[in-house]
Amino acid sequence: MSATSSPGSSQDSPQDSSQGSASTIGRSALKIGLLSALAGNIMWSLFPFYFRPLADINPLEILDHRVWGAAAFLALWLPFNNRWASVKAALSDLRKARLLLLSALLIGGNWLVYIWAVTHDHVLQASLGYYLSPLVAVAMSWAILKERQNRFQMVAFALASLAVAAKMMLTGSLPWIALALGFSFASYGLVRKQTDVGPLSGLFVEALFLLPFALLHLSWLAWQNQLSFQIGLDWQHSGLILGLGIITVLPLYFFNTGAKALPYSFVAMLFYTVPTLLFFFATQIFGEPATWADVGVFAIIWLAVGLYLYGQFQGSRKARKVTKPPVKPM
């Protein structure tokens, strides 16, 4: 627009209108993306309230019900989203199938450790594990995939390693729950990154791979008269078990819906709402004791997270500068 043209001139109005419409649509998409991603993270954060009432049930049996529940729910969901083609393609590709089998074992192990931690009053360690996970992922992508990382992210991983070492020295014990959760989830992300399969389609294939083991174990429990439904559950516990598949799928759906509309650095920042809320629930609601050693370890982790997020922000800003198109002369 020239300096002498008026805002209402017929020459410029259509362009301004289209730009304003695009801007409105962009803001709307970002808002919906933010709310969706936040909803997914909050759902994940509330898992302890779902699993703790099931503390009397063997964690492995809870995992079995979660696996068949997720498989059944996705089998009903995927046809409405036209995802069967993606599932068939993943199963027919030997390389993808092998990677998804590996990712299934990793996420199955992650789920089992998390369920055990929550039902045995170790939510604080679970929180530490999910603080560590993105930092471990940075180190893995550098060591295995040879991806370049900026100095802030590498210093963040070094600080996280220092925090774990400090935890061991101060308490005399290895924080195995935090390490198992952190490394299994980071490894899962690393493997899934190589598959090029959508989140829901991939989760369905993973559930299918785990399903025979789950059904076999449930059959064995039934034969031993140790199955929870045989022992007798009230309607509340039965409802919680039947809902395990739904609560597994919905957070993933909301999170990935939001992640598509948001910058990666912002998605990484939003992820930390999960361990932060877990830390709050563990100390303020579930009454888990936080020693000075714990406070010191989490202080180092929070510093590492701050450096990690700053590194993500710097990397995203540089990427935008590189991809920004040159300004055309007027």
In oligomeric terms, what are we looking at? single chain
How much of the polypeptide forms β-strand, as a percent range? under 5%
Helix content: over 70%
Globular, elongated, flat, extended or rod-shaped: what is the shape? globular
Largest β sheet strand count, sense and barrel closure = none
Number of domains: 1
How many helices?
15
> What is the structural class?
mainly alpha
Give the helices and strands as they follow along the chain: HHHHHHHHHHHHHHH
Give start-end ranges of low-pLDDT stretches: 1-12, 326-330
Radius of gyration (Å): 23 Å
User: What is the averaged pLDDT score?
Assistant: 83
How many DSSP E strands? Answer: 0
End-to-end Cα distance, whole Å, is 10 Å
Question: If you had to describe this structure to a student in words, what would you say it looks like?
Answer:
The protein has 330 residues and is mainly alpha-helical. The chain has one domain (37-317). It has helices at 13-45, 47-51, 59-77, 84-92, 94-119, 123-143, 151-171, 176-192, 199-223, 228-231, 235-242, 244-259, 264-271, 273-285, 292-323. The chain is globular and about 55 Å long. The termini are close together.
